[in-house]
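Protocol step 4 of 6: structure prediction from sequence.
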Amino acid sequence: MKTSTRSAATQLLLPAPLQPPRQLSIAFETPAITGLSAEQRAAAVQALAAVLLHAAGVQLSEDDDEQQ
């Protein structure tokens, strides 16, 4: 059995293997979206923004219009 000559401390300092960058591709002008009314599209955009903010760890407050 072959043993490594590197110490555990040296192995911790090695960089992680490089991976190619990944990018999410979203089609915004699909037939389903273009067929929505302005109100429906606004609601969909608001829901998407909330999901993305939540995924980023941002806490959303749901203030009523009366509280502003």
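Step 5 (inspection) to follow. Residues 3 and 11 are 13 Å apart (CA to CA).
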